[in-house]
Write a structure and sequence with these properties.
The complex is a heterodimer of chains A (about 140) and B (about 525). With about 140 residues, chain A is mostly helical. In chain A, about 70% of the residues lie in helices and about 10% in strands. Chain A has one domain (about 5-140). Chain A has five helices and two strands. Chain A has a two-stranded antiparallel sheet. Chain A is elongated, with a radius of gyration of 17 Å. Chain B has about 525 residues and is mainly alpha-helical. Chain B has a two-stranded antiparallel sheet. The two termini of chain B are about 30 Å apart. The chains are: A mainly alpha (about 140), B mainly alpha (about 525). The interface between A and B is medium-sized, with 26 and 30 residues. Chain B: Keywords: Cell membrane, Membrane, Transmembrane, Transmembrane helix.
């Protein structure tokens, strides 16, 4: 698998896929997409990078351990539901904060935070499995 | 919701949403689950910091106990409370509905988890911590509490999955061959059980178009034939699924095959909590939702209960490995709890029997966890889990021997400890319902359990040393263990808390009897439960 062509193209490909995964994550609220599918795309980007350049370089690139990433995702996913405590509404009631940026209305909200949490959980969990499997292969 | 919808007409959200402000106190309903999730996530991030982890986890577990105390107090004060997630009313939204039964079990489970976390400080080494003992424990608790508190069938399935996934992680913590072997048996059987659960839930949704427990309970009670073919099929599927999770006969073999493999504190948590969640789910579904099917299936349940009681007791007699022996005692306890489910054709007797089951579940959660912990201490003192290799523990540590004796009495159902009262209630209810065989089986199983625990006492504590020691002679324990092996505070405190609870519930049973009676009454007459979800219609 480690041909010159693949090794040269893989970093660019991975970067593009991560970018695309964030796009999919953000469009997910009203159109097909969302945290889960975005997370899968990002995890496969990391997997491709791992196959081409080795698992060690992936671990260096994402800095934190994938499981910590998943833990952080779980944390903000659960914490997104707590915000409605302060508005005397039930757990997980969505809160909306529309922001006007250069004439475009952007709706920031707790579902978005929750979706980012899901994204991180999926990236963390899937990539830690994938990296462990790839590591075993290279032994 | 607030997305770019094309409708221009004003939507009346009040029909589908709970728009009334929610008191902060009602957030206690989701607090146990939230603390579990948030705490588990933080412990997961701090996985590599082995000295910080126990402190973090103990903080969250004590927070969990506090939240559950508050929740139980609120439920006892205000009756059943419901919170609908995101404000969406059932049948569209998911409801958490907490009645005295759920709150009691959730509290006891969190106390046990707190003790286990404390016990784990000395028994789980840094490798076990790095592989995530504490994150798994806290996440497991979020699953267990979620299962006790939810009011939605599919949501119950989700919490079951949360606790099962955490339990897989705990089970293979040491990554040894035996553990993987045990985990495969455990995993495969649980997956099959989960499939039955899902099929049953799918059928419920197909028939009633709702998954909210209160909603289904109303719809079933309004039917002309509440125990017709389809409903009976669903009831049997659920019974099979949860009997598997609870390790009832004949689907009990996974328990003794897997519970002796993990770290002793993991075994303690599993023995205390996991099977009881299955029993709880059975209570919820068979009594609250499908009472007519329960009455129809009562004879079958009674047979299963008797077989489970006897399998557990005879299995315990046949074992010489303490952890396997205790595993069979867990099964015998499940038999006693199922017995309560089989009793009763009129509401009064049913309520008594169910309250016996609830009390027994509470007792079993506490005493089985404590016994597994005691087995861990026995291994620490005597260097073995096998009765053949143990001996002379009484001489080594009199206080521990006394503590073990209390637990042995309790698990056998002898007074004045916690096992006595639920058995009295159950046997009394069985005889007054004309199910003499069931009562006799409970008594006989208790008798055999007494013998099994007596064996442990005689072999491990009374005789001078391991097998081969001449009579009347005391031998220093093998493996270079000195006679003065110190039991640390992290072992004494959890064991002490659990044993104190066993003694307290034995000497002052009124409180728990009253609590389980309220829990049972809420199941048998679901009016309060339903009103809490749908208001006073």
């Amino acid at each position: 698998m480690r041909t010159v062509i693949f090794r040269t193209i893989a970093p660019y490909l991975s970067a593009l896929m991560v970018l695309y995964s964030i796009f999919v994550l953000l469009r997910g609220h009203n159109e097909p997409g969302g945290g889960f599918i975005g997370g899968l795309i990002a995890a496969s980007a990391l997997a491709i990078f791992g196959i081409a350049c080795g698992v060690a370089s992936v671990r260096r690139a994402i800095i934190v351990h994938p499981m910590s990433l998943a833990g952080f995702g779980l944390f903000i996913g659960a914490a997104a539901g707590v915000i409605s405590l302060f508005t005397a509404q039930p757990f997980m009631t969505s809160q909306w904060w529309p922001v006007n940026l250069f004439g475009v209305e952007i709706k920031l909200s707790t579902p978005l935070i929750f979706d980012i949490g899901v994204y991180l959980v999926v990236v963390g969990a899937i990539s830690s499995i994938a990296l462990a499997l790839e590591e075993r292969e290279s032994d | 919701m607030a997305g770019p919808t094309t409708t221009t007409a004003k939507v009346d959200y009040a029909a589908a949403m709970n728009l009334a402000p929610v008191a902060p106190g009602d957030w206690l309903v989701v607090a146990p689950v939230l603390i579990g999730l948030l705490g588990g996530a933080i412990c997961l991030m701090a996985r590599k910091n082995v000295s910080l982890q126990p402190k973090l986890a103990m903080f969250f577990l004590s927070l969990l106990v506090a939240a559950n105390v508050g929740l139980l107090a609120r439920v006892l004060d205000q009756g059943v409370i419901t919170m609908v997630m995101g404000g969406w009313l059932p049948p569209f939204g998911i409801a958490f509905t907490v009645d005295p039964l759920g709150a009691t079990l959730s509290l006891i489970a969190s106390v046990v988890a707190f003790c286990a976390g404390l016990f784990g400080i000395s028994t789980v080494d840094s490798t076990g911590r790095r592989y995530g003992f504490y994150p798994f424990l806290v996440l497991l608790m979020s699953g267990v509490c979620g299962a006790f508190l939810t009011g939605d069938l599919f949501n119950l399935y989700v919490w079951f999955e949360v606790l099962l996934i955490s339990s897989y992680g705990l089970l293979i913590l040491g990554n040894s061959r035996v553990q993987l072997d045990g985990a495969v048996k455990y995993g495969v059987l649980n997956l099959i059980g989960t499939n039955f659960f899902l099929i049953g839930t799918g059928m419920v949704y197909g028939v009633f178009g709702t998954l909210n427990m209160a909603d289904i309970a109303i719809k079933i009670s309004e039917l002309d034939a509440p125990a017709s073919g389809t409903l009976l099929t669903i009831a049997v599927l659920y019974f099979l699924a949860f009997a598997m999770k609870a390790a009832a006969f004949p689907v009990n073999f996974w328990l003794p095959a897997s519970y002796h493999t993990p770290n002793i504190v993991v075994s303690a948590v599993f023995a205390g909590l996991l099977t009881k969640v299955g029993v709880y789910a059975l209570l919820r579904i068979m009594v609250l939702i499908m009472p007519a099917s329960r009455e129809y299936l009562a004879d079958l349940i009674a047979l299963v209960a008797i077989a489970t009681l006897l399998t557990g007791a005879f299995g315990a007699l046949a074992q010489s490995e303490i952890r396997r022996l205790l595993g069979y005692l867990v099964i015998a306890g499940i038999g006693a709890m199922l017995a309560g489910l089989a009793i009763g054709t009129n509401p009064e007797v049913t309520t008594t029997a169910i309250s016996g089951t609830i009390f027994y579940a509470v007792h079993s959660i506490i005493v089985m966890t404590a016994l597994y912990m005691a087995a861990g201490v026995m291994n620490q003192l005597g260097g073995s889990y096998d009765l053949r290799g143990l001996g002379g523990l009484y001489q080594q540590n009199v206080a521990f021997a006394a503590l073990f004796l209390v637990l042995a009495f309790a698990v056998s159902g002898l007074p004045p400890f916690s096992g006595f009262w639920p058995k009295v209630i159950l046997v009394d209810a069985a005889f007054s319902d004309g199910r003499g065989w069931l009562g006799a089986a409970i008594l006989f199983s208790g008798f055999l359990t007494t013998i099994a625990m007596g064996r442990v006492w005689i072999y491990a504590f009374w005789r001078g040393g391991p097998e081969g020691t001449p009579d009347g002679q005391a031998v220093a324990p093998a493996d270079g263990q000195s006679a003065g092996t110190v039991i640390g505070a992290t072992v004494w405190v959890p064991l002490g808390i659990l044993t104190a609870m066993v003694v307290y519930f034995g000497l002052q049973p009124e409180w728990m009897i009253d609590l389980s009676a309220r829990g049972a009454a809420g199941l048998v007459d679901p009016l309060g439960y339903v009103r809490s979800v749908f208001g006073d219609q």
